[in-house]
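hiii, so i know i said id send this last week but things got crazy w the move. better late than never?? heres the sequnce for the chain we talked about at the cafe, plus the structure i predicted for it. fair warning i was half asleep when i ran it
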Amino acid sequence: MAEGDILCAIRRGSAFAATGFPFKLGEYLATGKPVIATAIGDIPRYLHDRTDAVLVPPDSVPALVEAMEYLLADRARAQRLGHAGRQVAWEHFSIETIRGSLKEGLDRL
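okay and structure toks below
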């Protein structure tokens, strides 16, 4: 991950892929690098196209190519998008956030 300029979390259009939010995608976002992800499952609940990641439809090679070209065309824009993605990772998937949610759940028991 440290070597990549753009990180891709691409999923196929399958029933399995259409569930949840991939743990690896959270790791990619946390790097602060620009991320391309498939708009499937819970991913669009957390990420917004060209705001904090570039979202592409499943199984679309042309959309993936266009997303890469979009990020490579403007390094500053890609960097801003990467920082915004890192903020999403922090807000939703950081240990502090998860600890708070876990504590709330345990307190209700």
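btw The chain has one domain: 7-108. thought thatd interest u
miss u guys!!
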